[in-house]
Amino acid sequence: MARALIHMPANAKRGEIIEIRALIGHPMETGYRVGADGKVLARDIIRSFACRYNGEQVFGAELHQAISANPYIAFFTVATESGTLEFTWQGDSGFAHTEKMNLTVSAS
Amino acid sequence: MRWLLALTMVAASALAADERRSGAEFMSAATQTMQRDDAQNPGMLWVASGEAEWNKSCVKCHGDARSSMRGVAARFPALDAGSGKVVNLSQRITQGQGHKPLPAESEELLALEAYVAMQSRGMPVSPPQDAETRAAASRGQQLYNQRIGQLNLSCAQCHDHQWGKKLAGSTIPQAHASAYPIYRLEWQGMGSLQRRLRNCMSGVRAEIPPFGAKELTELEAWLAVRDQGMKMESPGVRP
What we know:
The complex is a heterodimer.
Chain A: E1 4-7, E2 11-13, E3 17-24, E4 46-53, E5 56-62, E6 72-78, E7 83-91, E8 96-106
Parallel strand pairs in A: 2-8
Antiparallel strand pairs in A: 1-3, 3-6, 4-5, 4-7, 7-8
Chain B: H1 2-12, H2 29-36, H3 43-62, H4 65-68, E1 78-80, E2 85-87, H5 89-94, H6 107-118, H7 131-145, H8 155-159, E3 166-167, E4 170-171, E5 182-184, E6 189-191, H9 193-203, H10 214-226, E7 236-238
Parallel strand pairs in B: 5-7
Antiparallel strand pairs in B: 1-2, 3-4, 5-6
Helix pairs in contact in B: 3-6, 7-10
């Protein structure tokens, strides 16, 4: 059950810097831990995160084992035009999750 | 008369009412912010799942949780008239008719518990005053003061008499339970008050009761009396 929560303003003025905060539920299993049966738990992490603003990538991140479960990523972008922001997380064993948020930009 | 009884029970605790401090006050500023800010609080992921589950399984009978469940979590553990037992919030949720019985500590149950508890956020803890719940709380109080385990420690010895001091680098809090279920950073996930109680019992190397055991629910009932009037913080974040 992939769950993601995105917090960002729904409206902004053109040229305004907006903060976007994305939280996703994921175990981020490192691949270094041993389970109750003594076997190493297979690595299961999110490898990459990207935010596309009307198709153009405005933010990206690579994630690694040292990042905690349920990673929280906050970043800023400039509101240029109304449209859709698409957030994608991709990871091990074919994990993929996408969220879309709309942003309405008004002339200053 | 009722308030007088409640007052005597609170006074029976070694902590005076004005000395009570939520576990959140012992945390770092960063962890406090994580709890306060719903965008950062990972517990909100469980709240969101709980809301989806509520709207699928519970809404038909119970309506909009934002009104029907307001203040409910602040009044648990409570007497369940059907079984005649004192139950905690998650035990009550599993009795719901709209969904299959949920195993203790399952993600689905924690999600529903978090969503229901969220509706009481900011409200004062108000344990029920009926005779059965009060009797359970007073048995819980005995357990709270009883030495257990190879380390031969009671809850009270740390949480009433040594709070604020360090135990293996961590600050000992006062054991107030108004933020449960919590997202614990050490767990990397959500957990119930019973999970936390079992943790402590494992820490003092005592025999650990199974989830849903009567002793654990009685301890919860006592903690609710001890926390009476403190603000609900669910979903809490703890280190």
